[in-house]
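Example for reference:
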Amino acid sequence: MTQAISVIGAYPVFKYNTYGNIDFGTVKGFTMSYDLRRTGNISLRASYTLQFANGTGSSSGEGLNLVNSGQPNLRATIPLSYDQRHQLIANVDFRFFNGKLYNGPKLFGKDILQNTGTNIVIKAGSGSPYTKRSIVGNVMEGSWNGSRKPWRTSIDLTVDRDIILHWGEGEDKKQARLNVYLEIINVLDTKNVINVYSQTGNPDDDGYLSAAANQPEIESQLDEESFRNYYTMALQNPGMYSRPRTIRLGLSLSF
């Protein structure tokens, strides 16, 4: 993979920065899965993945600060920014069929839930790595990508019904399938953290207001209380969290 490098001893410019093919990454792991094929009304798929994604750089510009500081083109393996150590996924599908296979409730002799089903997807995963930094001075603490963001979980639900459409007669008789669905993403409206401030590991606090070294500067503001309130509001970044509960109602026509 490409990475920023420093070239020394060149001519006519003795030293300059460019890109070189010096980065590498290694992903190791395994996936354990369970598949319950359709048994009656239900089917189930579940999997667990353990992964170790290490490399010398997560992006082509990650080494730019290193070469600008006068250091040589050092290579050391670290957890990559997209490394996720644990991931669990479960998919449960429950549905009623039509005709002789229907075994659901009836109303006035009608199969009210024929061709109707519910699908639930449950996902859980450990957080990706980030680099811990000090509140004062923004100095790296520990190792590069040595800290982890919190676990994330989500539950998605889909309820759908197939409606068989017929038209025409004899040899011209045709058929199509209309699927009506209600999809709810993040059913529990879980506030999953996807990014954090590197100084605290929290999504809504960078530690500036509580640091003892910053108190003289904060107290010297024209209005200390207003400064604290506006600074706190500025930290409330919705990009730090996964999207909230989302509901979709849709139609799909197959013919």
Observations:
- The first helix runs from residue 64 to 68.
- The mean pLDDT is 91.
- The first strand starts at residue 2 and ends at 8.
- The helical segments are 64-68, 215-219, 224-235.
